[in-house]
Amino acid sequence: MIKKLLLGTLCIAQFSLIAAHDLKQTTNFTDDNGTGYFQNVPKTVIIKTKKFKVRIDKQPNGNYLYQSWGANTKITAKPSMIISNGELIPDGSGGNYYFEFNNNGTLYQVWRNYLTDSPKKAPYTLVVIDANGETVVRQDAQIVKN
């Protein structure tokens, strides 16, 4: 009886050590762009609002590039606006994040909405904030290409 009890205890201890070793090897919570493991940020995002098409590309230096067109303009045409040196900003721990671009004091933000109160909420939102801190544009956006 004592042999069985000792053997069972030894097995449990071994399995616990193996599980702890495996957990230690797999707890790398960051990916190549430094965001948390819960965020899967694509290298290119193309979205469309009522008035605009926006393309965001990750650049080799780690920053992001913002290009926009009118909603009815083909994306192969010359962009009406290009802003470089954008950054990805995580928002909380639920996976939401936004891209932020500064164009002479005007902020352009493209929010990714993973967690929302409504299942009908659009996956992205374009927000433009002027130099005085006033929101001049807030439009929901759908993914054209991800």
Tell me what you see in this structure.
The chain has 146 residues and is an alpha+beta fold. The protein contains one helix and eight strands; from the N terminus they run αββββββββ. The protein has an eight-stranded antiparallel beta barrel. The longest helix has 25 residues, at 2-26. The N and C termini lie far apart (62 Å). The model is unreliable at 21-38 (pLDDT under 50).
How much strand content do the residues show? 35-45%
The count of strands amounts to 8
Give, in order, the helices and strands. Answer: HEEEEEEEE
Name the overall outline: elongated
Helix content: 10-25%
Largest sheet: 8 strands, antiparallel, barrel
Gyration radius, in Å: 23 Å
- Which structural class best describes the helix and strand composition? alpha+beta
Distance between the termini: 62 Å
Q: Going across the major beta sheet, what is the strand order?
A: 1-2-3-4-5-6-7-8
- Mean pLDDT comes to 80
Number of helices: 1
Poorly predicted ranges = 21-38
Short description:
The protein is α+β, with helices and mostly antiparallel strands and 146 residues long. It has one helix at 2-26, and strands spanning 44-48, 52-58, 64-70, 81-90, 97-103, 106-112, 124-129, 135-145.
